[in-house]
Amino acid sequence: MNRHLAIALLGVAVVVGGVITANAGPAAPAAPAAARPPKIGYVDLQRSLNETPVGKRAKGKLESDKKKKQDELDKKQKELQGFAAELDKQRAVLKPDVLRQREKELQEKYVQLQERYFQLQQDLAKQEATLVREIFGKAAPVIQEIAKRDGYTMILEKNEGAVLWAEGGLDITTEVNKKLN
Known about the structure:
The chain is mainly alpha-helical. The chain is 73% helix and 4% strand.
């Protein structure tokens, strides 16, 4: 089950649980905690990534790695362009079988460059996902502490698509970021 569906189902369960408890009437004994309405907040981990020292360090490393990978791709692309230019210069004087062989080499080098590009993109996406998980791992205890202290029923993550809109008063990101510093 994907994360968005799980969050949505959890939210529906909280609301339905509250409605059932509220409609149970005087015959059903209600627990004290169930008598209060659910309190839901949210945290913007992308903001935490951008605003906290730990997030800034992680983003800096990601940007550095991204630049190194881009430099590698640029170098390989220049090599490929040089090979293609040289082949174009020699095209008229090469024997047909040698020309076909060099064109095949050029095509193989192009495919290798594309494969490397996609591999580096995947590596960066994995690295970014790991970075977000690390921030969440550091923020989770802080979020839990705030939620318990302030009586939240649920805290959602804003950038995961679960929160389309919410009042600013429900946002606990600033407090989380202060405690992460």
